[in-house]
Write a structure and sequence with these properties.
single chain, 220 residues, mainly beta, 3 helices
């Protein structure tokens, strides 16, 4: 099992002061193996905070990120799952599934993580899985007139199965939803002495994130 935090569009300190306190309470060190950030981190302090949650952090450059060290895209492999990460401003029209699907085919990924819309989405489309974690701070965006719901996602990757939990702060309370994606893979022919075992069920519960080791990495 690999537990991955999907987060982005924080816009600290320009559009938001900080993460919601109830999100900080959940995102404690030592329980998440990897972080994929869709960009618009905007300040070094926020980036360093993410590195306290997990040492293995991938950040792509958002349209408001000043750090040139962040790449425009990233591809991460958790065999057999290939995950692509972009900010999302490359997608025209913004958030359009056909445009995102074309980018996913170009990157040759099974799962495409993108942001920019500040609105959560997790949907299977054209045989691939598309995840937008929304804005973790609920930062405003000019493309949406209503109030933004703060949100982030956790991906529990178990072989060819990706179980995504979305955490949303609604009326001061954290609400959790679960979405599952299964990549269709050709099963190897088992040897005669072997028996087929089932894929293990998710060990993640909404308010109990299992512990895992950290690895070191830096982009800033």
């Amino acid at each position: 099992m690999v537990l991955v935090l999907i987060i982005g569009d924080l816009h600290i300190p320009h559009r938001a002061h900080d993460l919601p306190a109830k999100f900080r309470k959940l995102l404690v060190p030592g329980k998440i193996q990897q972080i994929l950030c869709t960009g618009n981190v905007c300040d070094r302090e926020t980036y360093e905070y993410l590195r306290t949650i997990a040492g293995d952090v991938y950040v792509v450059r958002g349209d408001y990120d000043e750090s040139a060290s962040f790449p425009p895209s990233a591809t991460i492999v958790h065999t057999p799952i290939r995950i692509g990460v972009i900010h999302g401003h490359q997608c025209v029209p913004t958030g359009d599934l056909d445009a995102l699907s074309a980018l996913a085919r170009q990157m040759d990924v099974d799962v495409l993580v993108s942001g920019h819309t500040h609105t959560f989405q997790a949907i299977e489309y054209d045989g691939r899985f598309f995840v937008n974690p929304g804005s973790a701070t609920g930062a405003w965006t000019g493309s949406y007139n209503g109030e933004i719901t703060p949100s982030f996602a956790l991906m529990d990757i178990q072989g060819a199965v990706v179980v995504t939990y979305v955490y949303q702060l609604v009326e001061g309370e954290v609400r959790v939803e679960k979405i599952e994606y299964r990549k269709e893979v050709e099963a190897p022919k088992p040897a005669q002495s072997q028996s087929v075992t089932s894929i293990p069920q998710s060990g993640v519960t909404p308010q109990n994130i299992p512990s895992s080791p950290q690895t070191g990495q830096t982009f800033w």
